[in-house]
Amino acid sequence: QLQLVESGGGLVQPGGSLRLACAASGFTLDYYAIGWFRQAPGKEREGVSCISSSTGTTNYADSVKGRFTISRDNAKNTVYLQMNSLKPEDTAVYYCAAGRFATMALYEYDYWGQGTQVTVSS
């Protein structure tokens, strides 16, 4: 069974950090591009960051550039999203997804995790 599982979410104060993990089971992440997406209450799901399968090329939404870093550890079959200098507007459910192309377009991704809640509040 192909599955993606996110972890690492939680409650953090503004300016704090969290590291999200996206672990795969049933398939190897090496061959997939991975995207991180988020959805805040009442808003559409949006792309946050993505990383390609071959070259490790990364891309970020303007709203998180300079604060978030995506990386992959193929040996652990896991992709990470390091989030620093968190803001209240980063509050959302964060999802990882696997697909053929590293893009911020949701429809390009075939496999999705169940999401992890990130809340930034004092």
Secondary-structure topology with pairs:
Layout (H helix, E strand, L loop, with lengths): L2 E5 L2 E3 L5 E8 L7 E7 L6 E6 L6 E3 L7 E6 L4 E6 L8 E8 L9 E4 L3 E5 L2
Parallel strand pairs: 2-11
Antiparallel strand pairs: 1-3, 3-8, 4-5, 4-9, 5-6, 7-8, 9-10, 9-11
Description:
The chain is 0% helix and 50% strand. With 122 residues, it is an all-beta fold. The strands form 2 sheets. Strands 2, 4, 5, 6, 9, 10 and 11 form a 7-stranded mixed β-sheet that branches. Strand 4 and strand 5 (46-51) form a beta hairpin. It is globular and about 40 Å long. It has strands at residues 3-7, 10-12, 18-25, 33-39, 46-51, 58-60, 68-73, 78-83, 92-99, 109-112, 116-120.
Find the structural class using helix and strand composition: mainly beta
Q: How much of the polypeptide forms β-strand, as a percent range?
A: over 45%
What string gives the helices and strands in order?
A: EEEEEEEEEEE
Mean pLDDT: 96
Number of beta-strand segments:
11
Number of helices: 0
Poorly predicted segments: none
Biggest sheet, in brief? 7 strands, mixed
Question: Judging from the principal axes of the Cα atoms, what is the shape?
Answer: globular
Q: Considering DSSP H and I runs of 4 or more, what fraction of the residues is helical?
A: under 10%
What distance separates the N and C termini?
A: 40 Å
Whole-angstrom Rg:
13 Å
